[in-house]
UniProtKB/TrEMBL annotation:
GO terms of molecular function: aspartic endopeptidase activity, intramembrane cleaving
Protein location: Endoplasmic reticulum membrane
Lineage of the organism: Eukaryota, Fungi, Fungi incertae sedis, Mucoromycota, Mucoromycotina
A GO BP entry: signal peptide processing
Family the entry assigns: Belongs to the peptidase A22B family.
Superkingdom of the organism of origin: Eukaryota
UniProt source species: Jimgerdemannia flammicorona
Cellular component, GO annotation: cytoplasmic side of endoplasmic reticulum membrane; lumenal side of endoplasmic reticulum membrane
Pfam families to which the protein is assigned, alphabetical: Peptidase_A22B
Keywords: Endoplasmic reticulum, Hydrolase, Membrane, Transmembrane, Transmembrane helix
Keyword DNA-binding: no
Main location: endoplasmic reticulum
Lipid bilayer topology: Multi-pass membrane protein
Keyword Membrane: yes
Annotated protein name in UniProt: Signal peptide peptidase-domain-containing protein
Length: 442
């Protein structure tokens, strides 16, 4: 039996584990912004070997979701969810969970190692890393760069630690290790996934609003899969952590929050941060690093506060009625209304709907025209050089043919020794033969 104190601690832990990856993932996603053409790179010297290079080639790759993806997301999600429900219903769930554990362990190694590097970069003093050597892997083909990556000994140590932790989780299914996986997945997903516009974000949240309501209230599918799915796709906390610490709990009961309730609103919060960055850069870009996080964040702040409010509402209703609640029922309207309300108050509603992440990647018109002109001149020069080379080649071939036609052949007298150099033109050879005949008659 859980105590009121234990329950409130559990709810507070879930709230904390939801907010931290959204905040961290959103800020980290700024590193993946593509620097527009004509914007100078940061001149700040990179002291830590764990820091990424400031070149665009090393910026983190992100996957952008479009409106068509947002429309289909609930459809594909429903298919996967119902498929898992049928598998757990008609097959041995132990074997299914073994396969899922193996799959998520492979993903977890990379996610944990990456999250570990990000944390170490933030908390470890630079002076402790001065002696760490940095190595670089560069793959090219015909002078074109295909892939580049850098690593240090610290990366190797963190990779080994993530492998050991993964093995520990696979053997014990410890809930703390499971939470570490879940938090790492959430941070990386928010960092690497992005919405291309607010229209896409609102379509996605609205679609998943009905998805969550239907599968939780309309059927037993969502709850059944959540209970049987033994993989790090959720964060959990004991309902009475004090009894768990003291070892007095006979059976540990957990309260949980799915990663979807963190990641989906999280990428919308990250979109708000990108919009804040876009607006701040448009207003003033002088003397600022393009990927700096030092700018006003009204949309990000309001959306994050709305997310916390929505999650608190979910927890209160769940605790009051003692029934599972679809978190997106409260989170989706909270996030959408926060963005719309902030834009309405600031008089930026038009800019909000016109904004697209592709807009940040577009080159200024003058820069694009200059690049096109330069490219056209380069291609024209290349064509002229090719024509010139072809003409020189033809002249050489014609000269060679003329030399063959005008060449004087060597006439060798068979009576002369082979070692003598009797080389002359055909007419000269004929004169010599006439002189010999005259000498014979005399």
């Amino acid at each position: 039996m859980s105590t009121p104190t234990g329950i409130f601690i559990a709810y507070g832990a879930l709230l904390t584990m939801a907010v931290i990856p959204i905040y961290a993932g959103s800020l980290t996603s700024l590193r993946s912004l593509k620097r527009p053409a004509g914007v100078p790179k940061s001149r700040t010297k990179i002291l830590s070997p764990l820091d990424d290079s400031d070149s665009d080639s090393e910026s983190a790759a992100s996957e952008s979701l479009s409106s068509s993806d947002a429309y289909m997301f609930p459809v594909f999600g429903s298919g996967v969810l119902f498929g898992l429900y049928l598998l757990f219903r008609f097959l041995n769930k132990d074997y299914i969970n073994m396969l899922l554990t193996a799959y998520f362990c492979v993903l977890g190694i990379a996610a944990l190692a990456k999250a570990g590097v990000d944390i170490t970069r933030k908390i470890m003093p630079v002076r402790l890393l001065k002696g760490v050597e940095k190595y670089k892997i560069l793959l090219t083909k015909e002078g074109k760069q295909l892939y580049t990556s850098s690593f240090t000994l610290v990366h190797g140590i963190l990779l080994l630690a993530s492998i050991l932790l993964t093995g520990y989780y696979a053997l014990t299914k410890n809930w703390i290790a499971s939470n570490m996986f879940g938090l790492s997945f959430s941070v990386n997903a928010i960092q690497l996934l992005s919405l291309d516009s607010f229209k896409t974000g609102m379509i996605l949240l609205s679609g998943l609003f009905f998805y969550d309501v239907f599968w939780v209230f309309g059927t037993e599918v969502m709850v059944s899969v959540a209970k049987n799915f033994d993989a790090p796709i959720k964060v959990v906390w004991p309902k009475d952590v004090i009894a768990w610490l003291l070892g007095s709990a006979e059976k540990v009961q957990f309260t949980m929050l799915g990663l979807g309730d963190i990641v989906i609103p999280g990428i919308f919060v990250a979109l708000c941060l990108r919009f804040d960055h876009h607006q701040a850069w448009k207003r003033s870009s002088a003397g600022r690093d393009y990927r700096s996080s030092d700018f006003p964040k009204p949309y990000f702040t309001s959306c994050l506060v709305a997310y916390v409010s929505g999650l608190v509402t979910t927890i209160v209703i769940m605790h009051t009625f003692q029934a599972a609640q679809p978190a997106l029922l409260y989170l989706s309207p909270a996030c959408i209304l926060s963005a719309l309300g902030t834009a309405l108050v600031r008089g930026e509603l038009k800019e909000l709907f016109a904004y697209s992440t592709e807009e940040d990647d577009k080159e200024p018109k003058e820069v694009k025209e200059k690049k096109d002109t330069k490219k056209a001149k380069k291609e024209e020069k290349k064509k002229v050089e090719e024509v010139k080379k072809e003409e020189e080649k033809n002249e050489e071939e014609e000269g060679a043919e003329a030399d063959v036609e005008e060449e004087d052949y060597v006439a060798v007298d068979p009576e002369e020794p082979k070692g003598s150099a009797a080389a002359a033109s055909p007419k000269t050879g004929a004169k010599k033969r006439k002189g010999k005949r005259a000498g014979g008659k005399a």
